[in-house]
Amino acid sequence: MNHHHEVVVIGAGISGIAAAIKLREAGVADVVILEKAETYGGTWRANTYPGCACDVPSNLYSYSFAPNSDWSRVYGTQPEILAYVDRVARDHGLEEVTRFGVEVTGARWDEAAGQWRVETTTGEIAARFVVAAAGPWNEPKIPDLPGLADFPGEVWHSARWNHDYDLTGKRVAVIGTGASAVQFVPEIQKQVADLRLFQRTAHWVLPKVDHPVPNAEKWVKRNVPLFERALGAVEYAAMEGVGTAFHHPKPLMHALQKVGQAYLRAAVRDKELRAKLTPQYLLGCKRILFSNNYLQSLTQPNVEVHATGVDRVEGSTVVGSDGTTAEVDAIILGTGFHILDMPVADLVRGADGRTLAEHWAGSPEAYLGTVVAGFPNAFVVLGPSLGTGHSSAFAIAEAQVALIVDAVTTARREGWAALAVRPETQAAYVDDVQAALAGTAYNAASCHSYYIDANGRNSFSWPWSTGELVRRVSRFDPADYEITVPAHAEPVEAKTQEVTA
């Protein structure tokens, strides 16, 4: 491994792949991707649980520069999304610049040298620019439950699925009822003898307009480009309609909530069970879940819903906060991820020697979700305040990558040693975002979601449309940054090489 690179990209998921491809296409030849796993895919590599699929239509959940006409369903499944992402990376020659099995253990800005010192499991690397693309759905959140470590059976998180354990005929407890559980619970319900679902909070579930894509439609997509574009426009408009409801909960989100209420009544006829599954918060306050079989699976005779959190584990018994118990052979954790307390924040130290986590002090913030004051020549993809609840992560990542590519190529062209967003620019932006979030469904007082950080502030959500996100986030304006120019420096043409896809 070389010990100096112009750009180090941390993570080989969808955002890291996009960053590397677009930087190389822009002539930035010396790019390396560091990936702790052994293949591409990020969260789609890690999450292999039964039923894993996307909640954004496949036509939108893909790179704009690499459209795919062969999705098998309206909403792509994990295996084909992973295959697609892997194929795009390899088709664009990223194998030659990706170092698999290399984990970043730290990074610090060396002011004197004007570069980053990136510590890895295989040694230190110096880099002029760092792109943190590990993403917020990277590190599973494991609950600190008394007795869990001493449970005699099998325990695993949904993002680390144990495919070697046969669930057939087993007694299983599922802790957590978020987006992952909604997908895997209907699958394992068919196998297990007894399923106990511990639900701390009921979630709104809407029907998923999903079906296999006919071969005739695939043929038209491949041979009539305008058709695929038109279909994507229709799906985009539909998703933006949901986005409008987030921003104007009265009356739009309240109307959509009635759809959820009607769906729950139709799927669950038992009044007692339906009462357990009825949320007590405004739709959109938490992530909206989509499924055609989750609610139905909970009505089956081998399923019992415990409408409570978990207090502890005693031997083979899971004890709910309400005192109810379940003796089980296995525990599956559907407890989410470290999203606003992402582990990479503890590893990266800025110009003052403090970590990103120390700067944030529980409330992550970044200008345009991409650059942080005090961290020169560093970028984060899928950062704070960019979550929408309805947009494609590909669209968000590509907008950020456009900004990153513009910033890096401008710095190279002008001979800048470093660029760092102005603190006052970042502060004004954060204030703007927080003011716009007031009154949205994201900030409804009726629930506490992972959108809300340790200090009670929404550091996750984007308060405007996807179109506004792309317009604002993709724009690099040098006036927003403090520029460092070496005393002897003159603008130079940086080394480039032609990169072909």
UniProtKB/TrEMBL annotation:
Record Pfam families:
Pyr_redox_3 (PF13738)
The record's InterPro entries line, in alphabetical order, gives: FAD-bind_Monooxygenase_sf, FAD/NAD-bd_sf
What name has this protein been given in UniProt?
NAD(P)/FAD-dependent oxidoreductase
Q: Which organism is it from?
A: Nocardioides immobilis
Lineage of origin = Bacteria, Bacillati, Actinomycetota, Actinomycetes, Propionibacteriales
